[in-house]
Amino acid sequence: QVQLVESGGGLVQAGGSLRLSCVASGRTFSKSVMRWFRQATGKERELVASISSRDGSTHYTDSVKGRFTISRDNAKNTVFLQMDNLKSEDTATYYCNVWVFDLGADFWGQGTQVTVSS
Hints:
- The chain is globular and about 45 Å long.
- It has strands spanning 2-7, 10-13, 18-26, 32-39, 46-52, 58-60, 68-73, 78-83, 92-100, 105-108, 112-117.
- By secondary structure, the protein is mostly beta strands.
- Strands 2, 4, 5, 6, 9, 10 and 11 form a seven-stranded mixed β-sheet that branches. It has a four-stranded antiparallel β-sheet with strand order 1-3-8-7, with no helix packed on it.
């Protein structure tokens, strides 16, 4: 199995920045897609950003393009989400997720709260 632990959430004013980190441990894996989801109160969980281990290609939901940057350190099994120019609508619990191709399964972290005050 794979365990994911997120960190870096907190309270920030609108226009500020936060950097989320997610460290994967447990079973080693190579081919994967690491993703950040978020879920605001009363809303469905949505995919925010993803990054492939194969070629580093990234994808973002439209609402965060130009403000958020996803990156990964494959050697440390860590994925980051740099969040700049935060808005109140970014307030949510952010979850790290990894899809492991070899296992045909995905795994979730426990979530970290991001609150943006306006």
